[in-house]
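**User:**
My hope is that you can spare some time for a protein that puzzles me. This is the protein in question:
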Amino acid sequence: MSQENVSLTELNETNAIGSMLPSLNAQGGHGYNWGQRIDPFTNQFASSRIQSNNFGIATSVNLFNGLRQVNTLKQAGLNTETAKWNYEKMRNDIALNVASAYLAVIINKEFMDIARRTLDGTDRQVKRMEKLVSAGQLAISNLNDMQAQLATDNASFVAAENNFKLSKLSLVQLLQLDAAKLDQFNIVLPKLDEVEQYTLLSNPDIAVQAALNNFPEVKSATTSVASAALGQKIAASGYYPSLNASFSYGTGYSGAAKVLTGNPDTLAFPIGTVMGTGELVTSFPQLSYSIDDYQTKAFSNQLQDNVNRSLFFSLNIPLFNGFSTYTGVKRAEINFRQAELQLAQTKQSITQSVYQAYNDAQAALANYYAFKTSVAASQKSFEWAELRYEQGLSNITEYADSRMRMEIAQANLARTKYDYIFKLKVLDFYQGKAITLKP
């Protein structure tokens, strides 16, 4: 979707460029007229059916409108840049989401492996006790207790396996792969070094400064502020006069346009006699034309002779427009302040996220060392409890409690290990580094 937004803003930028160029339009018409009218090409009355054609081309350009078009073009460029940064932010979010989903798969895989090892250990215990019961060396009640524990461990393994599959499904869906082939989807488990090989930053401000300088959401918010500032200038351009120029070139044809083609008759009318002589006096000879002496003027000749041109300049001075410009300016000012607040909020959010990741990494590292010690202690405790149970010196409840403490410690150790490493990679990501599980 963000890629489509980039395309839309690029189209808006192209439109802004085009609005600064002169417009050019051509037109043509063909029609017939009946009734009394003045023919536009002969300036004479015509009452018969007249065919007419007109053709023209016109152009217009804005010479000045308070720099509205210039600022609109600049704003369109900034909006395109903002859309591109938003697209980069979406890609970053997807990268973090994929990394987080991948981490969930790894952790659930660890939990499933722990549940599997526990189930296998209980199964071995059941098989061992079956032999001891058959040999008469162990009471049947101990075997029943262990078989019940086997059923509980099997249920725990099924739950852990289901959580692992669900985490895989989330990753598959996030990657937009075919969920029907989930069983065929496998991940490569990273070969991680010891936690000590991964170094935590001495100061989170290093990551904060890098993120504020390079993160796309900060750049997007910054360009949004610049765009809103131009929006103020665009709105204020409504207070300025606007000047436009237009030019048109046209011609036409009329069926009423006639040209003389025949030979006229010469007519003289008697107007009196000469006194004294009686000589007849006639009028000055006049030419007489009949309708057959005229023909419609040729189409090509009319197009050549009827050419007309016009050039106009128009000046518009805004005096009162119902407060539309005033409210537009005030709205632009509010948008500018909101953009500034959004930029400050974005920087604050990133700063908080970095510090949160840094504090989480510190806490995860401390928990890792605590659970590492806990695993060693709980494992020894379970070995002792297992021995006591095998010798009949304790019951199944004590055995199960000891083993549960060891399992919880192992699960927490795995979780905190991956959590610590992931938080380190998030801090690297804020510094502009690629997410990789290598030290």
